[in-house]
Amino acid sequence: MPKARSAQNARRHGLSRLEIPVSDIDALTRNILAEVPSALDHLAAADLASAARDLAEAELRLGRIARYMTALETRALADLLAGDLDAGLARLAVRRRLLRYRNAARRAQMKALQEWATMRHACTNPSLAPGVLGERHG
Q: CA-CA 20 to 30 A from 15: which of 2, 27, 62, 94?
């Protein structure tokens, strides 16, 4: 139920049009994985690919929200400078509500980045791998 409520709130606040195309996620995932040696066993590669995809999605989502908030600020300032206080203040109110989404996106990005770093370190240091790799599938 929380995911349905979250999706409804995102639609209400105009974030549904901020969905990230799968092709963008795939492209960034490939770029992230390009940093890693390709000689990994299947389980390690699957774990690393999953962590890379999570990181790519988090990075893209945070970027989209940040660009959306910047555009709102720009339009609000233009409205205020043009003397349309109601429109400018309404846009700033929407931006304020979006801070919660930006903060959640930042937390998701940090979590994904930490997981990516842990997985990458385990893949490049085989002695650590048994305790780290495979936990996503366990």
A: 27
Tell me the C-alpha to C-alpha distance, in Å, between residue 74 and each of 1, 49, 70, 88.
Answer: 35, 37, 6, 10
Count Cβ neighbours within 10 Å for each residue of 59-75 and write b for 16 or more, e otherwise: bbbbbbbeebbeebeee
- Residues of the chain short of pLDDT 70, as ranges, are 1-18, 37-43, 125-138
- Give me the pLDDT at residue 46, please: 82
Q: Which residue's structure tokens are 């930490």?
A: 114
pTM of the model: 0.71
Q: Reduced to 3 states, what is the DSSP secondary structure of residue 135?
A: coil
Q: Report, in angstroms and rounded to the nearest whole number, the Rg of the chain calculated over CA atoms.
A: 19
DSSP string covering the chain: -HHHHHHHHHHHTT-GGGPPPHHHHHHHHHHHHTTS-S---HHHHHHHHHHHHHHHHHHHHHHHHHHHHHHHHHHHHHHHHTT-HHHHHHHHHHHHHHHHHHHHHHHHHHHHHHHHHHHHHHHHSTTTHHHHTTTTT-
HSE toward the beta carbon, residue 86, CA cutoff 13 A: 0
